[in-house]
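re the bet — no i am not wrong, look at it urself. input seq straight from the record:
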Amino acid sequence: MSEALLTAGQFFVIIAGELILLFIGISFLVGLLQSYIPEERIRRTLAGRGEGTATALGGIFGALTPFCSCSTIPILVGLLNAGIPFSACMAFLLSSPLLNPVILSLLAALIGLVPTVVYAIITFCAALVLATLLGRFGFARYVKEVTVEGMAQAPACGCEAGTFAQRHGPRFSAALHFAVSLFRQVLPYLILGAGIGAFIYGFVPADLIVSLAGQDNPLAIPVAALIGVPMYIRAETIIPISAVLLQKGMGAGAVMALIIGGAGASIPEVTLLAAIFERRLVAAFVVTVLGIAVLAGVAFQILVAV
C-alpha cells in the first residue's frame, strides 16, 4: 500500500509539473498568435472562398482559436452571420476543441510525437469530411437567426509605427495576460486529471484495464466514445488520464475515442449550441463528434497494429 502510494505521489508531482510548465508556455504562444490573427481577419480570409477551400481554412482556423466554448461559439455566430459557407463554420466548430496547439502539445508530451501527428491528421480530415457532408445534406437550414451583442473586439494597439517594443510590446503583454488567465481557469482540471491519473497509475491493476478495454475487446472503442460524449471532460483533464490508461494496457483506439468524445462535445458547449442551432442540428453535431471519435479510434487502432 505504501509503495503504491509513493509511486502515485511521484507520478502526480512529475506529471503535474510538466503539464503546468508546458501549458503556460504554449498558451502564451497561442495568445501571441491570436493577437496577430484577429477574428475579423479570419472572416475576411474565409469570405468569398469556394466551399472546399473555405472548409479547409475553417478547420485550420479552428485549430488556432481559443479552446473554450465561451469563445468559440460567439466567433461561430460571427462567421455564420458574415455569410461564410456552412461547411466551413462546422469545420471550425469541430476542430476548435480537438486540434488547438495546447492540446496537441500535451498529447505529444504524454503519448509521443508520432501518435499525436496521427491523431491530428485523422481528426482534421474527419472534421473536414463530416463538415462537408453536413453542408451537403442541408443542415444549414437548422441554424437559428442569432446575433451576439456586446461582443468584445480586439483593442486597437497602435502597433503599426514606432520602435519594436512600441509595436509588439502590447501584443506580448496581451498574450501573457491570456496565458495567465487561461491557466487560472484550467489549473483545477489539470490537477484533477493528474490526480486521477496518478491514482490509476499506482492502484489500478493493468490486467483489469486490459480485460475491459484492451486491444482484443471489439467493443472498447465505441463504448469509450459513448462514455466520453455525454461527459463534461476537458481535454486538459482527460489527456493525463488517457496517458496512464495507455500505459496500463488500454487499447490506443479506445484512448483516442475517449479523448475525442470527451473534449469534442462537452455539456456546456452543447448547451450553448442549442441557443443557435435547432435540435436536429445539435443532435447531428453530437452524432458527428461520436462518429469522429469512433472513426479515429478504429483508424488509430489499425495503424498501431500495422
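see?? The two ends are 39 Å apart (CA to CA). told u. also The CA atoms of residues 65 and 232 lie 20 Å apart. so pay up
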